[in-house]
Design brief:
Radius of gyration: 39 Å
Structural class: alpha/beta
CATH superfamily of the largest domain: von Willebrand factor, type A domain
Number of domains: 4
Helix content: 40-55%
Shape: elongated
CATH class of the largest domain: Alpha Beta
CATH topology of the largest domain: Rossmann fold
């Protein structure tokens, strides 16, 4: 009976083997037709797989012969096959993958293009390398993604995305990005609004912040010791203190750099914009002996990699500072020449990985504070930073509605000043003040103080008026503030007061405002006009035809109202201010600031 069972059952393995061989032959033809078997290694790997497949038919036949003698053999046979199937399903993919790596080497990783800022570029490159290592660790040493991290100058990346990445952007910035990791969410919102419409070639999937870095004032260590107090101070107070030490303070362009914009906004809230702009110089590079507005991560990296004696610079954390918050945005392109479907999956994997413990550790190591984790061991005084940074603002940046007004203030305050000073040198200026000094001496001291409000690019000219003439002392274009004191030291006050003539002469010399310059005449007098051939009405009419703002400081016997000096200043768009000999220096300095539109 057993022989009969054997004869009846023996054809099954042969049929199974035939089916397997037919399947192998069909698969072989398909692989050969697509060019997958192009190397001898691929043929070897295919032969090994075929041998294992054919051998499995014999193994199944032997297994059946073994279990058929057992009661409930079909149950046992099925269970064994099921267990074997599970084992093969679990073990085969990694085994096959590892074998493929041994014979064929690593497959080409998918390129993911990551666009970031120039300030964040080194940090994001470090994080990208850690992610590539992560993918290699999970795939037998083979990276599944290659992150190409590049930077756009200033705000060029945002502009390029808003314009769907023109050919000019390809030349000047680089390839179409798959991931956009800017410094601030404020950069993302406008791009998303512009590209979220029918017909747009790009879609920016706005993501959450993955890390943050406060905007700080990096200063030399000795300067920090001189200015730091026991409690946190706001931006305005720290700027005044550091500027008072004589250290140059640099700032990136606030129209293109997030850290420059956030710090300047806070400074404008505390100080007159014209004062801020005259205490800063445009700079993006940290250097020993100078201060710079920057992000904490840039300073940490600089101290860690570029300093022989650490730290070269130390961070001052203003209490009212804002922060870069690094949102990770996925970018999708659907045009024929820029489709990035293959890069989308690894881009999402990179985004998810940054939220894991391994990803946050990589961010910390790069000098960035993960959004969902405290600062790590990299944040220590040796690198000029503090782990416990306490900020007043919960929000990373001001509301988007604030930026239009801010940009107008900046445009006004940053323009180079052209100021013509004209001083009354009439006989009445020899009168003594309560301190025993002459009015003219006090006026010279006031001019010296007022000139400290000027920045490195501002220029001035100087004249005096007495008798029937206006005498130029310093031509327009001078920046040397001490020259004014020296020139005025040669003047002996005498004669009458040709104020009207002096104002017209000054207006002719200074010229009107233009796109790069802001111009004004500042006249100081202690009495009304006595010797000019022109009347107040003549001066007002001339200023209407030749628009230059005129500011008048009235001291001593002069009065803006009593002598109708406002007739002249109102016609020009300027201002008349009554002062005293005690407050003349401060009043002149304040008037200088009003040249740039400060109303404080």
């Amino acid at each position: 009976m057993d022989d009969v069972d054997q004869r009846r059952s023996s054809p099954a393995p042969r049929y199974a083997g035939a089916v397997m061989l037919a399947a192998v032959a069909g698969h072989l033809l398909a692989e050969a037709a697509t060019g997958s078997l192009a190397t001898w290694q691929s043929w070897v790997l295919y032969a090994i797989g075929t041998g294992l497949l054919v051998g499995s038919a014999t193994a199944i036949d032997g297994l059946y012969a073994l279990v058929k003698r057992i009661r409930l053999r079909w149950v046992v046979f099925t269970a064994v096959l099921a267990v074997a199937g599970v084992v093969v399903a679990l073990a085969a993919p990694p085994v096959v993958a590892y074998g493929r790596v041994l014979l064929l080497g690593c497959p080409q990783p998918t390129e993911v293009r990551v666009l970031t800022s120039q300030a964040a570029l080194p940090a994001i490159q470090d994080v990208a390398r850690r992610f590539e290592q992560h993918t290699a660790g999970a795939h037998h040493g083979c990276r599944t993604a290659r992150l190409y991290v590049y930077a756009a100058p200033g705000n060029r990346g945002a502009i390029a995305l808003r314009s769907s990445w023109s050919s000019q952007a390809l030349r000047e910035v680089g390839p179409h990005p798959d991931v956009w990791l800017p410094d601030s969410t404020t950069e993302t919102e406008e791009v998303v609004r512009r590209t979220d419409g029918i017909g747009s070639a790009v879609r920016v999937r706005q993501g959450e912040s993955v890390a943050w870095s406060p905007v700080v004032l990096a200063v030399p260590v000795d300067t920090a010791r001189d200015v730091v107090s026991s409690s946190a101070e706001p931006w305005g107070e720290l700027l005044v203190k550091v500027h008072g030490t004589g250290v140059a303070i640099g700032r990136p362009n606030p129209l293109t750099a997030v850290e420059g914009r956030l710090a300047t906004y806070a400074l404008y809230s505390a100080l007159a914009p014209a004062v801020v702009e005259r205490q800063l110089e445009e700079s993006t590079q940290l250097r020993p002996g100078a201060a710079l507005i920057t992000t904490e991560q840039v300073l940490l990296r600089y101290n860690k990699t570029a300093c022989t004696q650490k730290p070269c610079l130390t961070a001052l954390y203003p209490s009212d500072t804002y922060r870069a918050d690094y949102p990770l945005n996925l970018v999708e392109w659907d045009t024929p020449d820029a489709s990035n479907h293959a890069a989308r999956a690894p881009a999402r994997e990179f985004q998810s990985w940054l939220a894991t413990q391994e990803g946050m550790t990589a961010l910390n190591a790069a000098g960035l504070r993960p959004s969902k984790q405290t600062a790590g061991s990299e944040f220590r005084e040796e690198y000029g930073v503090q782990a416990a940074a306490i900020l007043d603002h919960e929000e990373a940046a001001p509301a988007a509605t604030e930026w239009s007004a801010f940009e107008r203030k900046y445009d006004q305050a940053k323009r180079d000043g052209r100021i013509w000073l004209t001083l009354d040198a009439s006989g009445s200026m020899t009168e003594q003040t309560a301190t025993g000094e002459s009015r003219f001496t006090v006026a010279v001291d006031g001019v010296r103080k007022a000139l400290t409000q000027m920045g490195a690019r501002d220029t001035y000219g100087l004249s005096v008026f007495s008798g029937t003439e206006v005498r130029p002392l310093i031509p327009l274009g001078r920046r040397d503030r001490d020259a004014a004191t020296t020139a005025l030291g040669t003047v002996t006050p005498n004669g009458g007061t040709p104020l009207h003539q002096a104002i017209l002469d000054s207006a002719t010399r200074i010229g009107a405002d233009d796109a790069e310059h802001i111009s004004a005449v500042i006249a100081l007098t202690d009495g009304e006009d006595t010797t000019s051939p022109q009347t107040r009405a003549d001066v007002a009419a001339a200023l209407h035809d030749h628009p230059v703002r005129v500011f008048i400081v009235a001291v001593g016997d002069a009065s803006c109202a009593a002598h109708a000096l406002t007739t002249i200043t109102d016609a020009s768009g300027g201002e008349c201010h009554d002062s005293t000999m005690d407050t003349l220096g401060d009043d002149l300095a304040a008037l200088f600031r009003k040249v740039w539109g400060d109303t404080s």
